[in-house]
Amino acid sequence: MTGLLSLLSPFVAVEQAIPASHPAAWLAVPLGLLFFSGSVYVLLWSNYGARKGAAIYGVAFFGFGLLIGLFWWFGGPGIPPYLGITHFPGGDNTQFAEDWHPFEPGSERADFFTADDGEAEFVSLEEYLGLQGQDEETVQADPAYANLAGSTQAATEDMRGAFLPIDANGVALIGVERRTALEDEVAEVQPEGSRRGNPFYTAEATGDPQIADDPDTGLRILRAEFQTYANFVDEDGVPLDESPIAVGESTEWFSFYDPGMRWLPSAAWTIVSLLGFLLSLFWLDRLEIRDRRLLADDVEQPEDLAVPIAQ
């Protein structure tokens, strides 16, 4: 009984989303195709026969799929591209989405780029977009700047998390050597009568991030500098006025921009629809030629001559 209730619970509690692993999610598309496509096919079958009805429905179905695929792929007047399907079965909406990927100098990922070696000129976001010298209101109102600023802000947060990862308990997940160096400095700067806050180690970006195009790959590279801080509180748990206190050396981190391939699912849909449309059209044409040939054979069939009556 409990299993039946858990199976039916998504249908009863309509305010909750049905998880992708639920049987209803797996059956939604096949059942939708069965009732929608099946009813149309049965109607065509009753008028044109099974094969010709299937060919007609194939031309209509894949033709419509081709049209919406073109809009999904390239967009249209007032319609931005890539608003259709965003992933293949088994994936999610981030499968082909654009994203920033952080890396530190000297890492394996850094070997693919030369911008972090000083071969690229990093500039501010305003200068990168050619908005330098304009007032702040004009810059903030620019759509390209708003998009880039929001994107780089998320990238900076990712870099900060990679520079100083912290678990759910507020513990910094750093190596022994780095922790030892920070602890030695903490012992020198900790105010008298204070205790450690939670989280104790935090990190912040120093200054605004800068951006450049990598000379080798042409991808956008974001640069930001991060500083580690130690947080102290008093006996009542109130943060001290002088806290947080900078410890350790500031470090540069980088992040490269992956433009993603949001167009790929729409392109695959469009190509499959085009192939289905052409094959269905060819099949329908063959059936029409056969029907015309059979009709011509029936018309040209000679009539039986009447046997003359004997005189």
Structure characteristics:
2 domains, elongated, 311 residues, 5-stranded antiparallel β-sheet, 47% helix, 15% strand, alpha+beta
Report on the structure:
- It is built from eight helices and five strands, in the order αααβααααββββα.
- A hairpin with a 6-residue loop joins strand 3 (210-213) and strand 4 (220-233).
- The chain folds into two domains: 19-88 and 264-297, no CATH class; 100-259, no CATH class.
- Strands 1, 2, 3, 4 and 5 form a five-stranded antiparallel beta sheet that branches.
- It is 47% helix and 15% strand.
- With 311 residues, it is an alpha+beta fold.
- The longest helix is centred in the C-terminal third of the chain and has 38 residues, at 263-300.
- The protein has helices at 2-12, 23-48, 50-74, 125-128, 136-141, 143-163, 176-189, 263-300, and strands at 99-103, 195-205, 210-213, 220-233, 245-258.
- Helix 3 (50-74) runs antiparallel to helix 8.
- The mean pLDDT is 85.
Short description:
The protein has about 300 residues and is α+β, with helices and mostly antiparallel strands. The protein has helices at about 1-10, 25-50, 50-75, 125-130, 135-140, 145-165, 175-190, 265-300; strands at about 100-105, 195-205, 210-215, 220-235, 245-260.
